[in-house]
## 1
Amino acid sequence: LPGLHEETPEEAENQLMMLQERFNSMQQHQFPPLQPELLLRLDGSLSAYLVSLIEAANKESKSTIELVPSVRSGLEMALLSLASQASGLPLPQALLIHSHFHEGEAKAPSVSTLLPLNGMQVRGSAFIPFTSVRVIGQENTNEAMI
């Protein structure tokens, strides 16, 4: 992506198409088991899962896929989203609750610094049943309560 990654959008799209073909050809038992609470820990488990997922996709193929940065980032975001849905919590709260910071290993960062969401800022509390979303760059700064 211009100014962000060296690969072109076409290269990223081609890699996604190749991954889709490989994932579609795999049997369910060939995928590494997904443990949402581990992916949300922010302790390297997400990277380890992604490595095992790509190794499984490469296993039956003659060519090896090495993820380009934009595809890796997209897969990481998709896996985090899937894990938060499986936990039944919005992503910022799921990250806060399941991260190793929650267990007192270090001071927890602000939820807003954990994850920028494509130009959105998310505010809320894991203990209050609403989330406030503000779209950045819009003239109207009204917030939607969810």
## 2
Amino acid sequence: MKATARLAILGSSLATMLMPTACALHAAAEPALTTTDLPFPLIERFENFTERDGIPGHKVHAVLKGGDGRLWVGTYEGLCVRQPDGKFKRFGPEDGLSHKLVLCLAEDSRTGDLWVGTARGLNRFSGGQFTTYTQTDSGLPNNVVYGVAVVGDTVWAATAAGTGAYHTRSGTWKIYDQNNSIMHEPWCYAIAPAKDVLYIGVWGGGIVEHNPATGSFKEYRDPDGDFQFVLTPDSGPVSDITAWLAWEDGLLWQGTYFGLSRYDGSRWRTWVETKSPLVSNFINFVATRRTVAWVGTDRGVSVTDGNDWVNYLLGSHREGILEIHRPSHPVERRVLQTALVNAFVLGIWVDDREAWFATSDGLSRGILSRKNPDAPVAQLGRSASHPGRGNNIPKTKSYEYTHP
């Protein structure tokens, strides 16, 4: 059931409409925020790519831009790379890839080698050739590889039956599971390398911290033990159902199916959609850019530093909706001229100029800008409802907005 829930992915959308007159008057009374008020840039426009543009499959699970500038895309129908002319070149089993269903990607920044996790093994793409590692011909714990990361000479693979560490110099493997670590169970979804330790995301087992130098393990679990409700916010992981992990600049971000968590080494912060601007509790992926998290969910993307938030949504007519949430400010909503290709976001890659989104129905590129994209449609009070012309704009969420 877990694999089915993870892989059987369907898109979803949020509804939207024109703002009522009362809201428009409220917008006139409040000056519009500009992107310079935010600690991160906004997306100026989206460019979308589907099967019509050469993507081999409509379901895109992973996206990664390499150090050489090449864009790698993992899909339901194979791996592909975007060439200088903008066309996509596909690699499949006929080219040596162990399986056409690509789940995750990582690059060795020292060598430029690409590591590809699939539904049937781990692959190394080097010098135009694939080398495959499966559970029957290597020390890979399980063929289903959900996450992969490269740390020095070691490649870490999060699989459905534990985490594997492949030492590239010696060619040897070591497996970590419930038998030789403190993992509650072996179903691992993500690997997040940190400064001196490694974080392993465990489905139903929270987060496991491992120090390879000392061999020690430490566990972080949901303190209230409830999968569906956050009874003790800001006291630990929001849930034990870890879907993804990301670490950068001293901050560990945990995406779960029940909300978002952040850990700075001493303090936890948690966010759920009913009590924060988080667009959805169902999180598939988290990418980081310094202290900012880009959160891919089943209903769009949330971008946050834990204080300010920007959401990218899809309207009922597939128009792009941008929401800006700031403490002590009304929510600002804008209708964009372009939009995500699909709201069910499975993977993200971002730098200071662009963001790429893998979705359940295509690939999107977001062009980042410090300029103010499009005119604001309205600014809405945190508890405002939207009666009037139609009912396509969902009500603005009401929550107690606190600083981190």
## 3
Amino acid sequence: MPVVSGIDCEKGVVYEHIKVSQGVLEVAGEHIMSEAGPLRYYENFFGADEALTNFAPGRSLWVATLIITGNSREEAWARRCEVIKDIRDYFGLSVYHDSAPAKSVPGAVSLESFL
């Protein structure tokens, strides 16, 4: 990996798209964002460092792009799992679907370990 001045390559980040609808939290590709309509920027969105979302209180269908950082990839992934858990708990979402589960992320901690 090339060395780039001013960039700390030891940090980790998770950039993920989620869709919430009637008891379901789905992790999917960016296509879910294309039909979302106007998006807003939030900091500390359910624990995520930053988010772009069409979320509004009382809305049952919404999407978000979550940006979650950590001091390592493993820490960022663990924080991501906590964010997903917090969103599921807050909205009472009983179903979780991830089209690319944690097994595909080297060194990842699965969401199930946080449930």
